[in-house]
Amino acid sequence: MRPSDSQLAERLQTGFLGVIAFGLILALLVQARFILICLVFAIIIFSLTSDAISAFARLKVPNWLATTLALIAIAVGLLWAATAVVAQVNEVVSISIAYADRAQAALARLSQRWGPQAQEAIATFMGNIDFAGWLRSAAAQASNLISGSVLILTFVGFMFSERIWFPIKIERLTKDPAQARQMLETMRRIMRRVNRYLVVKAAISAVTAALIWLIFRFWGLELAGAVAMLTFILNFIPTLGSIIATVITVAMVLAQTGDPAPTLAIGTMTTAVHFIIGNIFDPMLLGQTLRLSSFGIVLSLAFWGAVWGIAGTFLAVPIMVAVMIVCAQIPWLRPVAIMLSQEGVPEAEPRQPRLRG
């Protein structure tokens, strides 16, 4: 066999093994998605609270006391958030089912202005949609938040117990103190970038949710708190989250009022809120934090949404940030980091020595 043929066969074999490995990893991501999603959320919560514990340590607070207080706060916060979301979803489901007939009647009156063909098409479309089934399915999925919160809390507790020994394990694993420091610094950079993104995004989402709540209260509509909470949560999904939140808000208004005029007015106000915050304040505050390609974010949303569902769309950006930073430190993966970055410069901070690939 000629050398060129042997090289081609070796490349084909390597590519074939790569495809098999990718398929196995993808199957693992799908089959174990509940545990993996909880693990990723636990890592994010651990990262956020680690900074808080470090801040307490600088105030001469004992590490065991700061860790205990952090675990108590995490447990209370997770369980409260899970029960609050479940309660709001159940309230939306019960009220939406009660208003479903009114919304369909309003759409029927509205479609009369567009002619009989449009009216027939809308009636056929609405008849094929099982709103009650979708709402009950959403309520059933929301109930999984309680069990997920318990699993996340368990993961976080074990992470805190291993927190002191983790740098030592990395050093013994690599058998090279310099490379261990590089790996730990890369992890810290990922944590800093993701933490800043989550804190800024939470503040932006809170302002957006508060404005939507004020609009609902001003018009005297029900479900102001539920719609505001839904807006806050969906705002963590880049681009698509604001669109989905606006559509749901308009549907809720139409279901409650049954009148196209206030629905159009409130829909215009909520769209303006999402547009101004999403296109002015969001890029201004997050531009230097993310440094991610817009097309890459869309691909990440599509991939993780297909693999992990709704939870994957929330985790798409943090995972993409981590992948970009890791790839920027490994020479043979640096082209991937350049393609994922916004301007072809994945490092937002001073460059560190790269890891050996």
Report a brief summary of the structure.
This protein is mainly α and 357 residues long.
Describe the structure.
This protein is mostly helical. It has three domains: 33-119 and 128-163, no CATH class; 189-288, no CATH class; 290-348, no CATH class. The chain has helices spanning 3-31, 33-58, 63-111, 116-127, 131-161, 166-174, 177-218, 224-234, 240-257, 260-290, 294-308, 310-329, 334-340. Helix 11 (294-308) packs across helix 12 (310-329). The radius of gyration is 24 Å and the shape is globular. Residues 349-357 have low confidence and may be disordered. Keywords: Membrane, Transmembrane, Transmembrane helix. Belongs to the autoinducer-2 exporter (AI-2E) (TC 2.A.86) family.
What keyword list fits this structure?
357 residues; mainly alpha; 3 domains; 13 helices; 84% helix; 0% strand; globular; disordered C terminus
Structural category is mainly alpha
Helix content: over 70%
- Give the ordered list of helices and strands: HHHHHHHHHHHHH
Q: List the uncertain runs.
A: 349-357
Distance between the termini: 31 Å
Alpha-carbon Rg, integer: 24 Å
Number of domain modules: 3
Q: Helix tally?
A: 13
Shape, principal axes of CA atoms: globular
Number of strand elements: 0
Query: What percent of residues are in strands?
Result: under 5%
- Major pleated sheet: none
Keywords: Membrane, Transmembrane, Transmembrane helix
Subcellular location: Membrane
Membrane topology: Multi-pass membrane protein
Family: Belongs to the autoinducer-2 exporter (AI-2E) (TC 2.A.86) family.
